[in-house]
Amino acid sequence: MEPLLEVKNITKRFGGLTAVDNVDMQIYPGEVIGILGDNGAGKSTLIKVISGVYHAEEGQIFFEGCKIKISNPIEALKIGIETIYQDLALAENMNVYSNIFLGREKLEKFLGFINVLDHDYMLVESKKVLNRLDINIPSLKNKIRTLSGGERQAVAISRSIYWNAKLLIMDEPTAALGVAEQKKVLNLVRTLSSHGVSVIIISHQMHDVFSVATRLLIMRRGKKIAERITKKTNVDEVVGLIVGSLPGDYIEAIEEKK
Amino acid sequence: MINYNKTKEIGINILRRWILILLVGEIVFFGIVGTNYLSLNNLQNILVASTTVLLLATGETFVIITGGIDLSIGFMVGFSSVVSAKVMVDLWAAGFSQPLAITIGILTALLIGLIPGFINGFLVAKLRVPPFIATFGMYGIAYGFAEIICNNVPVHNLPTSLGSLGHGYLFYWLPGKIFSFLAKPENLAREELKNLISIIPNVTIITFIFIGIFAFILAKTKFGQHTYAIGGNVNAAERAGVDVKVHLIKVYMISSFFASLAGVMYVLQFITGRAPAGSARLLDAVVAVIIGGASLSGGKGTIMGTVIGALIIGALETGLVNLGIPTYNLHIAVGCILIFAVLIDQFSPELVHKEEEIR
Predict the structure, then answer these.
(1) Which of A243, B159, B185, B278 has CB atoms 3.0–4.6 Å from B98's, for a disulfide?
(2) What is the mean pLDDT of chain A?
(3) Greater confidence, B157 or B62?
(4) Based on the structure, what is the number of domains in chain B?
């Protein structure tokens, strides 16, 4: 199967600091992968390169087999890469369906010539996508302000799915959520995967990542030092790789090159 | 359950509509203690007296919903009144017919009035000048230019037919005899003139036509939706593909358009153009918007609320005049209402919360 997204030899420097150092990565349709690493390991920088916030000095990005250049986040959105940010990019003063349709409102004709918002259509369509993802929100006419953190995340995710996102990047999706809510978000990730959407998760919560990701990418000091199939590893090994008590797979190769 | 929720919703909605209750209460109060306060004439006077505040506040509502503020509108009224008056006077003196001179004067003021709004929006959106600073700068600039244009004296000698337009009514009705549309019936005896009932001032019709159009835009269209989104979360709006900069420029242009319209209405009502016209109304306009449910931090507010807010001020002012109380007391009352409005706004989420606990 062809990977949905493939990055090759990505390097990103900030002045003298190499935040991401020669990283390769693939993700296949419907796959959930976790990127793990200590603070400053380069996880966030890597995903910001993928989502168009940063530009890599070296390396290439392929999406569905084509080489692409992502110059800003809006472009990334257009090709189907969506990052669920922690501030979630929702307008809290507006209701659920208005947020799902924000910027792409459905219009209808009033008196035959004036374009007005088609609330009914947007409400029904939003309900459909929430049902498809097994998301339960009391009323889609409620303002985002009245929703819990997990519900907000669900709204942000359903919006991206409605607009055909193929790859979701989630940075610490379960941070700041209650236990019940964390479970819901993880279930949602599984649902997404079963719908063929690929998900990249960055998290410090080892258990969360282990429970949803099929493959793990471990980074240390900007380098990808190991890649593991979740079923064939355990928390101890991964922690060892993260903190550096275990050597990792690629260290030698990189050091030889130098 | 549904029934209970409905009742609760209605209860909350009534509390939310406290401003409407205040307005009605005010009118009833002055109706009881005042003289002829509830007469058709006086009620129409409230509307006419509120013209400037109504117009300024409508434009300001858009700006405040985006989280900004437009202070320039205070002197924009004077600027526009001077420009339109000056054009009318000059064209009339140059031999243009009255209607033509008046029309060109009005259109010129409305068109030129868009420029300060564009500059405000450009400064705020593209150059990231804080709205308070950008529009406060424009406030002074507009006043200065207005004084230059009118040479520091009010513009007089305007076309004479202006009065029949500005002081006219949509209908005139002499009970049992005449019913005329737009024009005052001619050749009436003094006694008949006394009994003539005038219905709906022209100024008010024009004002409410524009308010209606923009209330529709704010409530029903994509443009309105994006206005709320920008006020709620600029980043979200930007990420959703809204062209925030262009949108903000349009919003500030709407505000200055309404200020210019207020200036034109001033000329129609007072048959003169003055540089400081309407400057005292800036604060009233902002107060009307806030009373109407908007918040200076943006994201909420409606034109309906703003209109009620403006009428509360207008009804109060007219009431004080009616009772012979000096109008400077108005400022005390308006100040109190403003603070009260903000307090209600701050405590209303708690109000809702408590209701939910009961359930």
Answers:
(1) B159
(2) 88
(3) B62
(4) 1
